[in-house]
UniProtKB/TrEMBL annotation:
Residues 160-359 form the Peptidase M12B domain. It comes from Ursus maritimus (Polar bear). One of its GO terms (molecular function) is metalloendopeptidase activity. Keywords: Disulfide bond, EGF-like domain, Hydrolase, Membrane, Metal-binding, Metalloprotease, Protease, Signal, Transmembrane, Transmembrane helix, Zinc. It is found in: Membrane. This is Disintegrin and metalloproteinase domain-containing protein 33 isoform X8. Zn(2+) binds at H295, H299, H305. Residues 693-755 are annotated as: Disordered. The lineage of its organism: Eukaryota, Metazoa, Chordata, Craniata, Vertebrata. It comes from the Eukaryota. Disulfide bonds join C425-C445, C603-C613, C621-C630.
């Protein structure tokens, strides 16, 4: 639709009349963004990281952030706030989008007049994500760290929840005139938009924390977007310990160098060291920052930039698609079909496992409210707004289950009923993963667990680290293809001691590089042998070095990132954290450190040799042993995985019974054979024993001598009554062999192997 078309002018006039009359928009399916019940003040507790930590209670209008649609416009899209006047985005169709906000400035409460813009009237801008385009989709796929993202068999159509923590830096607080209330409202509006944008991917935002740095920045914020990102992600590790969340996003009032407005690691979602991003508050309107934040979250979910011709869902004039590398408009709100395909692939690979966990209602900001789509304390279910609730199991008006229903959704819910305990809901994938099972009491699969850090993997060539098994072999093949292998240690020592762009142990924060000490050489730049002529990641070039070794020359192969390119890919070309660099030694922060794994040793001692240790430091027992200590018969699993049971429960019980009866079969068969032969020694012995028993002199009968017995008892050796020996199991690993009593069990009694 053209900006001067009659229909566009008519729509604007119609909306303007409504605003001048100060009437609420006729929003269908209006849904407040995690507000509270009507009539109660919203109380938000803020964590303020300054010289002293303190909580600030803010009283704000309740129920003032909305999602919805305009009646009569089936494709409409409304995100609105009425906290301080009316402001928000109203989209009536593909090319008819308007933004409304109060005309008054400063702290005035006179909101009787409002300004309304057609999106096309706003000034064009050319901003970019710090992630540069890959040459093609295949290149982007090659950037994923194969061992860090676990393959899954299928994508389940269960709801996804993103527990989001948003931080405003000190500069943003200053741009809001040091007004904590204005800063808070800015963050809430941004979160409201991000929630609506991500819902188009069936991902709902659960805001679990807001933080404002009122006195000084708690991590280094500079015009260098890359340095700011990694400093914030390092700070986030401590944040997660005190406030669990899925992703942390820093919103800064600073401008980054060049046209970059945001940065995030590819496929970093749910990872301890990379689940976050940084964005600048570059627009006067909060939806601009929200679109950038949604874009960076998209990168965390494995989405690359849309190639040319991919975005057909939205025209460029009203904003285009969210994953465009750079856009001429600040308000994209839809994801392309290309992005959706990449997201499905990311979930199939096991990425984003933390999004399957239901959020803790006690951590939500603001507090619980029926109709926000999140199941909170006092609610059986929550399917969103009453007018648009698609759930046949849930009563939307009071968030209770319908008669006969036990659940509404989740990996452990089917047709409004809970799946039985022991049904697998998340398969184990890779050396360092563990399976999870339905509990029978919750519709959700238990949180994802994996082997405790330090558990051996890859046939002893590596240690489990954060659920993955990083090895030099895997990293070389990821970089150079299947024919590549790790270079000799001499390559690492020679190349990485230079301290230049081609060989180093990381950056020094001043634009230079840190040379590797001899001990740390295998934790710097990755050095490989062989493989394809060119490295697989885009925007990289090969760096070949020749090293003399045993009278021969060896070609060591590394990669170099082209100048001026920021791929925001975690440690591209560097050895991954957790990689084994010696006996009981792993790479951490570009250093080769001694690691005793004492937590693992302590945990294994409590598992009695019949299990492994999971990421919660609990025993995960082998089939045939029961948690928590794996010292009693049971079905295996752990207190964290949900109760396990074989897929064929009846066959399992039958096998257990047979395992008790089998030791008796040799003796019974021998007795049958002996007794079945006339005149056999056993038969004679038995009959002789009978005669002996009847040869006693009767009290009143005649006296007679008993003949001497000619039958000697048959002595059965220990082999006839010994315990059955467990069967050899070539797949038995991780000390996960079943006990003797379960030696003859069907293979279904064992934990499922990955495909």
């Amino acid at each position: 639709m053209g900006r001067g078309s009659p229909r566009a002018r008519g729509s604007r006039a119609w909306l303007l009349v409504l605003l001048l009359l100060r009437l609420p928009l006729p929003v269908r399916g209006a849904e407040a963004f995690q507000g509270k019940h009507s009539g109660e003040p919203v109380t938000l507790h803020w964590v303020l990281d300054g010289r002293a930590r303190r909580a600030v209670t803010l009283e704000e209008p309740d129920h003032c952030h909305y999602h919805g649609r305009v009646r009569g416009f089936p494709d409409s899209w409304v995100v609105f706030s009425t906290c301080s006047g009316m402001r928000g985005l109203i989209t009536l169709g593909r090319n008819a989008s308007y933004y409304v906000h109060p005309r008054s400035a400063g702290d005035s409460e006179d909101f009787i007049t409002h300004r309304m813009f057609w999106i096309g009237q706003l000034l064009s801008w050319k901003r970019a994500c710090g992630h540069r385009d890959a040459r093609n989709k295949g290149d982007m796929a090659s950037l994923s760290r194969a061992t860090q993202i676990k393959e899954r068999r299928e994508v389940r159509r269960s709801p996804k929840f993103l527990e989001l923590y948003i931080v405003a830096d000190h500069t943003l607080f200053l741009t809001q005139h040091r007004n904590l209330n204005h800063t808070k409202q800015r963050l809430l509006e941004v979160a409201n938009y991000v929630d609506q944008i991500l819902r188009t991917l069936d991902i709902q935002v659960a805001l679990t924390g807001l933080e404002v740095w009122t006195e000084q920045d708690q991590s280094r914020v500079t015009p260098d977007a890359n340095a700011t990102l990694w400093a914030f992600l390092h700070w986030r590790r401590g944040l997660w310990a005190r406030r669990p969340h899925d992703s942390a996003q820093l919103l800064t009032g600073r401008a980054f160098q060049g046209a970059t407005v945001g940065l995030a690691p590819i496929e970093g979602m749910c990872r301890a060291e990379s689940s976050g991003g940084v964005s600048t508050d570059h627009s006067e309107l909060p939806i601009g920052a929200a679109a950038t934040m949604a874009h960076e979250i998209g990168h965390s979910l494995g989405l690359s930039h849309d190639p040319d011709g991919c975005c057909v869902e939205a025209a460029a004039e009203p904003g285009g698609c969210v994953m465009a590398a750079a856009t001429g408009r600040p308000f994209p709100r839809v994801f392309s079909a290309c992005s959706r395909r990449q997201l499905r692939a990311f979930f199939r690979k096991g990425g984003g496992a933390c999004l399957s966990n239901a959020p803790d209602s006690r951590l939500l900001v603001p507090r619980a409210r029926c109709g926000n789509g999140l199941v909170e304390d006092g609610e059986d279910c929550d399917c969103g707004a009453s007018q648009e609730c698609p759930d046949a199991c849930c009563l939307a008006h009071n968030c209770s289950l319908r008669a006969g229903a036990q659940c509404t959704h989740g990996d452990c819910c089917a047709r409004c009923l809970l799946k039985p305990a022991g049904v697998p809901c998340r398969r184990a994938v890779g050396d360092c993963d563990l399976p999870e099972f339905c509990t029978g009491a919750s519709p959700y699969c238990p949180p994802d667990i994996y082997l405790l850090d330090g558990s051996p993997c890859a046939s002893g060539r590596g240690y489990c680290w954060d659920g993955a098994c990083p090895t030099l072999e895997q990293q070389c093949q990821q970089l150079w293809g299947p024919g590549s292998s790790p270079a000799p240690e001499a390559c690492f020592q020679t190349v990485n001691s230079a301290g230049d762009a081609h060989g180093n142990c990381g950056e020094d924060g001043k634009g230079g590089f840190v040379p590797c000490a001899q001990r740390d050489a295998q934790c710097g730049k990755l050095q490989c042998l062989g493989g394809e002529p060119r490295p697989r990641p885009p925007h990289t070039v090969p760096v070949d070095s020749t090293v003399g070794l045993g009278g021969q020359e060896v070609t060591c192969r590394g990669v170099f990132l082209l100048p001026g390119v920021q791929l925001d890919v975690l440690n591209l070309g560097l050895v991954e954290p957790g990689t084994q660099c010696g006996p009981s030694m792993v790479c951490q922060d570009r250093r080769c450190r001694n690691t005793t794994f004492w937590e693992l040793e302590q945990c294994l001692a409590a598992c009695h040799g019949h299990g492994v240790c999971n990421s919660n430091q609990n025993c995960h027992c082998a089939p045939g042993w029961a948690p928590p200590s794996c010292d009693k018969p049971g079905f295996g699993g752990s207190v964290d995985s949900g109760p396990t049971q074989p897929e064929n429960h009846k066959a399992f019980l039958l096998a257990v019974i047979l395992s008790f009866l089998l030791p008796l079969l040799p003796g019974a068969g021998l007795a049958w054979c002996c007794c079945g032969q006339p005149g056999s020694r056993l038969q004679q012995w038995l009959w002789g024993s009978r005669r002996d028993a009847t040869c006693s002199r009767p009290k009143d009968g005649p006296n007679r001598d008993c003949p001497p017995s000619s039958v000697h008892p048959l002595e059965l050796g220990p082999a006839a009554t010994g315990e059955p020996r467990p069967l050899e199991d070539p797949d038995c690993g991780h000390n996960m062999c079943p006990p003797p009593i379960a030696a003859d069990l069907e293979s279904s009694a064992r934990a499922q192997e990955p495909p």
